[in-house]
Design a protein that fits this description.
It is built from four helices and three strands, in the order H-E-E-H-H-E-H. With about 100 residues, the chain is of the alpha+beta class.
């Protein structure tokens, strides 16, 4: 199973999502390793939760992958109303500042 599929499966199993998108952004940063991802998670479960709490939830779900395989994870966690207000648009992921992109 690809890392992208594993991330999708783990989040979907742990959170009741209205929308879930896992984007493999590794091609923008690394040399063939699946290590950079962006997740967009839309769930009613985020209602009343601060951004930090939402991110902690995703980080807890993916703790093994973050410790061993993922170099960068861009998290966008919204309630359905917040996502609708944004018209489904999410910010671009930041540029990677390290890791396997270095030319040595």
């Amino acid at each position: 199973m690809s890392m992208q599929a594993l991330i999708h499966e783990k989040i979907a199993a742990a959170i009741s999502c209205k929308h879930l998108n896992v984007v493999n952004e590794s091609h923008m940063h690394s040399r063939g390793e699946d290590s950079h991802f962006k997740v967009v998670v839309v769930s009613e479960e985020f209602a009343g939760k601060r951004l930090l709490q939402r991110h902690r939830k995703i980080n807890e779900i993916l703790k093994d992958e973050l410790a061993n395989h993922i170099h960068a994870l861009s998290i966008h966690a919204y309630t359905p109303d917040e996502y609708s207000e944004r018209a489904g648009q999410t910010p671009d992921s930041p540029n990677c500042l390290g890791g396997s992109k270095f030319d040595n």
